[in-house]
Here is the input.
Amino acid sequence: MGIIVLAVIIVLIFFFLMSNIVFSLYIGRDKKIIANIVIFKVIKINIYDKNKRRKKNKTSKSNIPPKIISELLKESLPSLKYFIEKSSIYIRLDMVFGLSSPDKTAITYGLINSFLYTLDCFLINTSKKVNSSYNITPDLKDKRFELCLDFNLYIRLFRVIIFILKLLKALIRYKSYFRSKGGVVY
Here is the structure.
């Protein structure tokens, strides 16, 4: 009886670790920003909602040398690359913009398109699956800006745990630089 219970627990832990997590970011035309984590397609954890008011913490500034920041980035970027390689990405971007003059709008339109499709090529070559659609419309007559972005990142839970552990390992190595007079700077 004990072996059966242990086997059931191991199978449940295995399914829990193999389940997909969705990191979702939505920026709507009504200037509402929502960031969520969805686990098991049922549990939804709201990370950020622009309409919520939060108390601002008065934190002291820490003097972290730029050399330490660059070394920390060098150590954490390979784990970020691993994170992107093992994920599936869904991006939908709708943007309407206009600047003060039509020539500036046209030049900006070309820069935005070149940046987006370069980023798209990078994501297609590095991640497991990418589904993206971009709809950028320049308004040559009026000065306006409308943005609607829907970004979802699908990844397995154990890969998130591995990524967090690698990031914590890099942070622990430089923990003495993140201290201030009042304690740890978050």
Remarks:
- The helical segments are 2-18, 66-85, 102-126, 157-173.
- Strands lie at 20-27, 33-39, 43-49, 88-98, 129-138, 144-156, 179-180, 183-184.
